[in-house]
Amino acid sequence: MAELTPEQLLALLYTEPRRLDLTEDERAALARPASPVAWTAADVPLLDELAELLGDTDAAERAGGQRRAEQEAERAEAIQYATQVVDDLRQAGAIARPDVGVRRGAGWPGRHDKYVDPPD
To answer: What are the tens digits of pLDDT across the range 33-80?
Structure first.
């Protein structure tokens, strides 16, 4: 069997309570949907105990790394999309970036820290 994280093991036990040595009533009380929306406060001690019993797992590190990679990929995709929208709007003449040389030392609109009037 592949190495499981505490979260994966608890989800498995909740979705397949027949794996536990319990009465039918106890199994029915534990049953959860296949993909729980979120863990509850009552799950925290169980997750902690499972983490202690399982020890450090490479699966947890891989899962965290995979989540970070997915988030970074989503972020990169959003930046690429936003850049493309701005480029398209700029090419269509719908927006214009201010000429930086007109206001020496001034930043983007809204920043007035070093405003210098343009020469006459």
So the answer is: 766 567 888 888 988 898 888 886 666 666 777 788 888 899 999 999
Residue 1 lies in a domain: no
Task: Residue 89: give the domain boundaries.
Answer: 72-120
Q: How many domains does the chain have?
A: 2
Q: How far apart are CA 102 and CA 109, in angstroms?
A: 12
* Phi and psi angles of residue 91, each rounded to the nearest 5 degrees, phi first: -65, -35
Q: Establish if 20 belongs to a structural domain.
A: yes
Of 22-36, 57-71, 86-100, where does mean pLDDT reach its minimum? 57-71
- What's the CA dihedral at 46, 51, 53, 58 to 10 degrees? 150
